[in-house]
Amino acid sequence: MISRVQSGAVLGIDGYSVEVEVNLAMGIPGMSIVGLPDAAIKESSDRVAAAIKNTNLDMPLKKITVNLAPADIKKEGSAFDLPIAIGILAANGLIDKEALAKHMILGELSLDGRVKRIKGALSIAT
Protein backbone atom coordinates (compact mmCIF):
# COMPACT_ATOMS: atom_id res chain seq x y z
CA MET A 1 0.00 0.00 0.00
CA ILE A 2 1.53 3.27 -1.15
CA SER A 3 0.53 6.85 -0.47
CA ARG A 4 1.96 10.12 -1.77
CA VAL A 5 1.93 13.44 0.07
CA GLN A 6 3.12 16.71 -1.45
CA SER A 7 5.46 18.66 0.78
CA GLY A 8 8.37 21.03 0.36
CA ALA A 9 11.75 22.14 1.62
CA VAL A 10 14.13 25.07 1.40
CA LEU A 11 17.45 25.07 -0.43
CA GLY A 12 19.22 28.29 0.46
CA ILE A 13 16.36 30.78 0.32
CA ASP A 14 14.39 29.03 -2.40
CA GLY A 15 11.61 26.55 -1.79
CA TYR A 16 11.12 23.39 -3.81
CA SER A 17 8.60 20.55 -3.91
CA VAL A 18 9.23 17.24 -2.18
CA GLU A 19 7.03 14.20 -2.66
CA VAL A 20 6.77 12.06 0.47
CA GLU A 21 6.03 8.48 -0.58
CA VAL A 22 5.05 5.97 2.08
CA ASN A 23 4.95 2.21 1.53
CA LEU A 24 3.52 -0.27 4.03
CA ALA A 25 4.67 -3.86 3.56
CA MET A 26 4.71 -7.15 5.39
CA GLY A 27 7.85 -7.65 7.44
CA ILE A 28 9.42 -6.69 10.72
CA PRO A 29 7.65 -3.55 12.01
CA GLY A 30 9.80 -0.45 11.79
CA MET A 31 10.38 2.66 9.74
CA SER A 32 13.17 3.63 7.39
CA ILE A 33 13.45 7.03 5.74
CA VAL A 34 15.39 7.37 2.48
CA GLY A 35 16.08 10.23 0.07
CA LEU A 36 19.07 11.99 1.71
CA PRO A 37 17.47 12.89 5.07
CA ASP A 38 19.49 14.68 7.74
CA ALA A 39 19.56 13.61 11.42
CA ALA A 40 16.41 15.61 12.32
CA ILE A 41 14.44 13.82 9.61
CA LYS A 42 15.76 10.41 10.63
CA GLU A 43 14.61 11.18 14.19
CA SER A 44 11.14 12.01 12.90
CA SER A 45 10.24 8.32 12.91
CA ASP A 46 10.15 8.42 16.72
CA ARG A 47 8.14 11.67 16.82
CA VAL A 48 5.69 10.43 14.21
CA ALA A 49 5.12 7.07 15.93
CA ALA A 50 4.56 8.76 19.31
CA ALA A 51 2.22 11.38 17.82
CA ILE A 52 0.11 8.76 16.06
CA LYS A 53 -0.17 6.61 19.19
CA ASN A 54 -0.88 9.60 21.46
CA THR A 55 -3.77 10.76 19.27
CA ASN A 56 -5.50 7.40 19.81
CA LEU A 57 -4.72 6.08 16.33
CA ASP A 58 -2.98 2.80 15.58
CA MET A 59 0.52 2.78 14.19
CA PRO A 60 0.56 0.04 11.53
CA LEU A 61 2.52 -3.04 12.58
CA LYS A 62 4.25 -3.23 9.21
CA LYS A 63 7.53 -2.36 7.59
CA ILE A 64 7.24 1.34 6.71
CA THR A 65 9.47 2.82 4.02
CA VAL A 66 9.40 6.58 3.50
CA ASN A 67 10.99 8.07 0.38
CA LEU A 68 11.65 11.81 0.11
CA ALA A 69 11.82 12.60 -3.61
CA PRO A 70 13.85 13.97 -5.29
CA ALA A 71 16.37 11.67 -3.67
CA ASP A 72 19.43 13.54 -4.95
CA ILE A 73 18.90 16.69 -2.83
CA LYS A 74 19.72 16.68 0.92
CA LYS A 75 16.63 17.36 3.06
CA GLU A 76 16.91 19.13 6.43
CA GLY A 77 14.71 19.95 9.38
CA SER A 78 11.59 18.66 11.03
CA ALA A 79 9.00 19.92 8.52
CA PHE A 80 8.49 16.38 7.19
CA ASP A 81 6.99 15.00 10.43
CA LEU A 82 3.40 15.87 9.49
CA PRO A 83 3.56 14.70 5.85
CA ILE A 84 5.14 11.42 6.97
CA ALA A 85 2.39 10.88 9.56
CA ILE A 86 -0.34 11.78 7.06
CA GLY A 87 1.28 9.44 4.51
CA ILE A 88 1.31 6.56 6.99
CA LEU A 89 -2.35 7.11 7.86
CA ALA A 90 -3.29 7.36 4.16
CA ALA A 91 -1.36 4.20 3.25
CA ASN A 92 -3.19 2.46 6.10
CA GLY A 93 -6.57 3.58 4.70
CA LEU A 94 -7.45 6.16 7.36
CA ILE A 95 -7.15 9.22 5.09
CA ASP A 96 -8.46 9.63 1.54
CA LYS A 97 -5.46 9.50 -0.82
CA GLU A 98 -7.20 11.46 -3.57
CA ALA A 99 -7.88 14.41 -1.28
CA LEU A 100 -4.17 14.62 -0.43
CA ALA A 101 -3.24 15.43 -4.03
CA LYS A 102 -4.81 18.89 -3.66
CA HIS A 103 -2.69 19.95 -0.67
CA MET A 104 0.91 20.65 0.31
CA ILE A 105 1.56 19.54 3.89
CA LEU A 106 4.34 20.77 6.19
CA GLY A 107 4.79 20.68 9.95
CA GLU A 108 6.73 19.39 12.90
CA LEU A 109 4.88 17.13 15.33
CA SER A 110 5.12 17.14 19.08
CA LEU A 111 4.94 13.81 20.86
CA ASP A 112 1.29 14.41 21.75
CA GLY A 113 0.36 15.07 18.11
CA ARG A 114 0.25 18.87 18.15
CA VAL A 115 1.57 20.56 14.99
CA LYS A 116 4.42 23.02 15.53
CA ARG A 117 5.49 25.79 13.22
CA ILE A 118 8.40 25.38 10.85
CA LYS A 119 11.01 27.64 9.28
CA GLY A 120 10.83 28.44 5.58
CA ALA A 121 7.10 27.98 5.05
CA LEU A 122 6.81 31.24 3.11
CA SER A 123 9.65 30.30 0.73
CA ILE A 124 8.13 26.86 0.15
CA ALA A 125 4.65 28.27 -0.49
CA THR A 126 5.79 30.58 -3.30
Summarize the model shown:
The protein is 29% helix and 30% strand.
SSE layout and pairing:
Elements: E1 2-11, E2 14-25, E3 30-34, H1 39-54, E4 63-69, H2 81-91, H3 97-100, E5 108-109, E6 115-116, H4 121-125
Parallel strand pairs: 3-4
Antiparallel strand pairs: 1-2, 2-4, 5-6
Helix pairs in contact: 1-2
Account of the 3D structure:
The protein is α+β, with helices and mostly antiparallel strands and 126 residues long. It has a single domain (2-125), classed as Ribosomal Protein S5, domain 2 (2-Layer Sandwich). 29% of the residues lie in helices and 30% in strands. The chain is built from four helices and six strands; from the N terminus they run βββαβααββα. A four-stranded mixed beta sheet has the order 1-2-4-3. Strands 5-6 form a two-stranded antiparallel sheet.
Distance between the termini: 31 Å
Number of helices: 4
What is the beta-strand fraction? 25-35%
Class from secondary-structure proportions: alpha+beta
Tell me the CATH topology: Ribosomal Protein S5, domain 2
- Based on the structure given, which CATH architecture is correct? 2-Layer Sandwich
**Low-confidence residue ranges:** none
Give a count of the beta strands, DSSP E runs of length 2 or more. 6
**Main sheet attributes: strand count, strand direction, barrel closure:** 4 strands, mixed
Helix content: 25-40%
